Amino acid sequence: MGSYWALAPHKSAEFELALTQVTGLLQKLGQAGRHAVAEDLLRLIGARVPLAQCAIFSYEGGGRPRIVAIGDRARTAALPAISQDYVARFYPLDGSVAAMQAELAAALRAPRARPRILLHRQRPHDISHSEYRRVCYELPQVAERLAILALYEGERWLSVNLYRGTEHGPFDDAAVSVVEAFAPLVVQSVRLHYASRSLDDDLAELMLARLQRRCPNLTKRDRDVARGLLSGHSTDHIADHMGIERSSAQTYLKRLYRKLGVSGQRALFGLLTGPEPAD
Questions:
Q1: Quick check: 123 pLDDT over 60?
Q2: Using CB atoms within 10 A as the burial measure, which of 26, 99, 134, 201 is most buried?
Q3: Does one domain contain both 163 and 40?
Q4: Average pLDDT, stretch 15-25?
Q5: Are residues 27 and 140 in the same domain?
Q6: Are 239 and 192 in a shared domain?
């Protein structure tokens, strides 16, 4: 399971951040690509503590977590697949999930208590499940993960996971102190990013529902392509998400436009934001 603890109130940093660094991070929240926040946190914290990867998840209602963002310092191209495996297969085995459940139970017993920021550390030898250990730690050569956990709106957890590669070794006391000092900024940044992206996702789902009402004969491939377009993703991103070649994604996109009788993305948005036809 590893170990976890609550961040001490008013934890002070022993270093200063340039205003331009913080401003640069905040300006991108919700505006840049989905994964920008994880990549920026890697750069910001990684300037003081060597890090290999960053993966951010949200947990709500006891179901599967949702991937919020991932960042990778070019050590492996497998992080998207590893994150999907974690969400689909391994998250119940994660020690941080047990830590969140214990903290939530305590918060429900004392509802007036202010939610705390937790930190949870987990090394490969803390994991008894061999496949979880192999896929998420041994294959990507992870020496240790330090997770920053925070309850959001009293109903969901946000988990920011910082990974050290075997070339870095586990987090020492000095590295843990740096992450603790960054934790409040990390939590607030990810909360803002998550809120903004959730609004975008909700809007995309509303428009997709409208699209399905107008054209009920769309295939699953059609809907997947449409969801990517309505979420503002590029053709390359849609292809990666669907696990197909870019040329195939372009073919599906052209087929979708033909079915809908529109000439392109702008016309698609115009169709879905205009008044619905009367029955």
A1: yes
A2: 99
A3: yes
A4: 61
A5: yes
A6: no
